[in-house]
């Protein structure tokens, strides 16, 4: 893997066309496989993220309610929209990885002709596929609540951003999220939580170095993502 990996978290509010996840952020790993994108499936498998496929990404907003998803870019470049039509656009290139918590709306906005990703799921979970038109958002939220915490990070294994950023939500008294929390409160909590976790010291091996920063950004009335990023030194 590349020697330095920038990790960015993106928190999304519920939208009309996608439930998104009210507690868990999307995690964007910039270039961990930049030098060897062909290794993505191998590493996912090693870290027990399975049920692999390699293909493009649908051009319409869709989401999975029964599993989290890792997407590793094997070739090409693309822009994906996360969170629904009023969401956040993320640029991807070969070697990048996205981890989407259950319920995250995503679609392809544009892509190069050679764009391919490998998808994988914790413990090889089977995945469903929904749009905002075929399932009620409340029903989707109920299903998302039942999705278990992954035991490993798809890129780093036993330690990594999935465990650092997601475990606190699963360890809370209310589980991954509280259904009684209002959208406005979730937005406020997401912004403060992103900053706190981005500055917290994760238990990575001492061979990795890190630089922390966080910033909040509002893209629309219905989606207010928060961003936190850091640099990780990977194992050789």
Task: Indicate the topology.
Elements: E1 4-10, E2 26-30, H1 40-46, E3 49-55, E4 69-75, E5 77-82, E6 88-93, E7 97-100, E8 106-111, E9 116-122, H2 137-145, H3 161-171, H4 183-199, E10 212-216, E11 226-233
Antiparallel strand pairs: 1-2, 1-11, 2-7, 3-9, 4-7, 4-9, 5-6, 5-8, 10-11
List keywords for this structure.
single chain, 236 residues, alpha+beta, 8-stranded antiparallel β-sheet, 3-stranded antiparallel β-sheet, 19% helix, globular, disordered C terminus
Short description:
The chain is of the alpha+beta class and 236 residues long. It contains 4 helices and 11 strands; from the N terminus they run ββαβββββββαααββ. It has one domain (4-233).
Give the CA-CA distance, first to last residue.
7 Å
Runs in which pLDDT lies below 50 for 5 or more consecutive residues are: 177-236
The 3D shape can be described as globular
| Strand order in the largest sheet | 3-9-4-7-2-1-11-10
Structural class of the secondary structure composition?
A: alpha+beta
How much strand? 25-35%
Average of the residue pLDDT scores: 78
What do these coordinates show?
It is a single chain. With 236 residues, this protein is an alpha+beta fold. The protein has one domain (4-233). Helix content is 19%, strand content 29%. The protein is built from four helices and eleven strands; from the N terminus they run E-E-H-E-E-E-E-E-E-E-H-H-H-E-E. The chain has helices at 40-46, 137-145, 161-171, 183-199, and strands spanning 4-10, 26-30, 49-55, 69-75, 77-82, 88-93, 97-100, 106-111, 116-122, 212-216, 226-233. The N and C termini lie close together (7 Å).
